[in-house]
């Protein structure tokens, strides 16, 4: 493994106790001074036990480590190479971890908490958000206060600190796509306040770069999945896994022929690390695999991986649901050198077997061009689990 691209930096991860944020912390903390700002309304302190392949254990400023519960997919390919981390899965013995982790328990809408957390940082990964599409429809002002107003506070604070910002956006900005795959230049007609807020944040990020020379990158996550994706707004894969493990019916709304682009959290982390070092700033990038899978096929994959006898059943579709989604990843491949490494089948298998928690992250180097209160930005399909029903049709994230 070559030296991490992000090393000896002071880094803030907003929403760092959530799904994707906690995986970012895991990747960054061994080699950087990392701060987490989270109110833990949906995230968990249990997600913040930082592990490392270099066997340094947890790095905690308050000496109170919690239990680790997941990492990335290191399922091996036929040639023995770890798929989740690529060829860089083995740690470099010349790298001596010397990082730290500090938790600021607070809300990003609180300017004082944000100032404390961001003081002196070099880099901000902004993952915090209210992520439920339904909540954004029921309470658009409240959703806007976190997803947009507070995000502007983050951008303003970054200006004061002269810090780069990598922001979690969403495929929800596109609404119903005109064609597949969906490129970054596709029509943006979001169908919910959540999508509108993410699109506005995309545009603010670009404006802050153009007006104030602030280096920003917006990452439009498609359907994220992986360890630690849980709670009432977790993704369709988490829902199916829970149903299959209990031998309960795996329930799909609609005919199951709707398709999605599922991207593993380890790949999302890699995209974030690349965005943190690229010169191609002031831009938005899709983060997906460029492949699409039907929800019916997904249900069968999950059932087979679990070895469950769950029947697959269907409910009436919801009106207005997105039929198909698939990312055009040519821009992110060309500009950031990003390609997803984890296949859906192996990613699901790792969730079932627990293999995802066995290895730490290897960060991409600058030479490796080929290479969620606020919770954490996770790509999901607004799957409110009361009762558990797969709702893969809307684009949102946690």
TrEMBL record:
Domain NAD-dependent epimerase/dehydratase: 11-288
Positions with biased composition (Basic and acidic residues): 313-328
Region Disordered, residue ranges: 42-103, 308-328, 355-398
Polar residues: compositionally biased ranges: 42-65
SUPFAM superfamilies listed in its UniProt record: NAD(P)-binding Rossmann-fold domains
Composition skew (Acidic residues), residue ranges: 85-97
InterPro entries: Epimerase_deHydtase (IPR001509), Lipid_A_modif_metabolic_enz (IPR050177), NAD(P)-bd_dom_sf (IPR036291)
Residue stretches of biased makeup (Low complexity): 367-386
Entries under Pfam families matching the protein: Epimerase
Name of the featured protein: NAD-dependent epimerase/dehydratase
Native source organism of the sequence: Natrialba chahannaoensis JCM 10990
Lineage start: Archaea, Methanobacteriati, Methanobacteriota, Stenosarchaea group, Halobacteria
